[in-house]
């Protein structure tokens, strides 16, 4: 059963999905409160990205229900889900390589008149992006492109952010900066954040609670502050 609207930012109930005739998710159920940071951990190939894409409307669910911010969005297309105030940062670098940094950022906003106001926040998060506004995005380093993805997602001041493996390939100092930015976004705007990660340290440093996904099934949940949380998660990742 899905919890009352007032107690959730995101809820999935008995969710099943996959690609074509290949099932990946097997009855996934999660409830995430508004303003909560929640980590979904697991090895490669366990269904983490499939879960986010199904929640985001990029893959159709076969069974089950998805509710975001109090709305039953099961089967909605991604553009409608975005309009609820949901941002998605995919694992792949989905920037427009041939456009400038500024053009990539402008594409995030449906209200162009608010761009200059929101750019102030980008300057505070990532000063180098505003200094390189006219640089072609494809010439940024891999880590810088990920920061551009983060800036583009947060520029809209989303109510819910879905983040897929943002720390993959990042230097520790950059990962720490992203952690600080996400904590500040939650503190300032009450943003609900769902992190898909293999970086256990990053996820536990940010998340209030976590779930471990294994072969498309939730096999463990807990509080990140629990003394044995890291050991429990790493045991699942090692098997």
Output the keywords.
Rossmann fold; four-stranded antiparallel β-sheet; 239 residues; single chain; alpha/beta; 2 domains; 35% helix
Explain how this protein is built:
The protein is an alpha/beta fold and 239 residues long. It has 2 domains: 162 residues, P-loop containing nucleotide triphosphate hydrolases (Rossmann fold), CATH 3.40.50; 51 residues, no CATH class. The protein has 9 helices and 10 strands. The strands form 2 sheets. A 6-stranded mixed beta sheet has the order 6-7-8-3-9-10, with helices on both faces. Strands 2-1-4-5 form a 4-stranded antiparallel beta sheet, covered by helices on one side. β9 and β10 form a beta hairpin. The N terminus is likely disordered.
Helix content: 25-40%
Shape: globular
Structural class: alpha/beta
- The neighbouring-strand order within the major sheet is 6-7-8-3-9-10
Order of helices and strands: EEEHEEHEHHHHEHEHEEH
DSSP, total strands:
10
CATH architecture of the largest domain: 3-Layer(aba) Sandwich
CA radius of gyration is: 17 Å
Residue-averaged pLDDT: 91
CATH class identity of the largest domain: Alpha Beta
So how many helices? Answer: 9
Give the strand content: 25-35%
Largest sheet: 6 strands, mixed
CATH superfamily of the largest domain: P-loop containing nucleotide triphosphate hydrolases
Total discrete domains: 2
CATH topology of the largest domain: Rossmann fold
Low-confidence stretches: 1-6
């Amino acid at each position: 059963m899905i919890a009352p609207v007032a107690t959730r930012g995101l809820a999935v109930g008995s969710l099943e999905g996959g690609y074509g005739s290949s099932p990946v998710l097997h009855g996934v159920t999660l409830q995430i409160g508004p303003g909560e940071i929640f980590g979904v951990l697991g090895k490669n190939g366990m269904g983490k990205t499939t879960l986010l894409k199904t929640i985001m409307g990029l893959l159709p669910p076969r069974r089950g229900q998805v509710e975001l911010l109090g709305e039953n969005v099961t089967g909605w297309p991604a553009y409608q889900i975005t309009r609820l105030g949901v941002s998605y940062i995919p694992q792949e670098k989905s920037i427009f390589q041939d456009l400038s940094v500024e053009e990539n950022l402008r594409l995030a906003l449906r209200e162009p008149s608010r761009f200059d106001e929101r750019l102030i926040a980008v300057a505070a998060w990532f000063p180098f992006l505003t200094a390189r506004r006219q640089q072609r995005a494809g010439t940024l380093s891999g880590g810088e492109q990920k920061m551009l993805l983060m800036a583009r997602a947060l520029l809209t001041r989303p109510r819910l952010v879905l983040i897929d493996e943002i720390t993959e390939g990042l230097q520790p100092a950059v990962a720490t900066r992203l952690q600080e930015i996400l904590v500040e976004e939650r503190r300032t705007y009450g943003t609900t954040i769902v992190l898909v990660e293999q970086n256990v340290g990053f996820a536990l440093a940010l998340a209030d609670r976590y779930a471990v996904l294994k072969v498309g099934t939730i096999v463990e949940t807990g509080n990140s502050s629990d003394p044995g949380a890291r050991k429990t998660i790493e045991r699942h990742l090692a098997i």
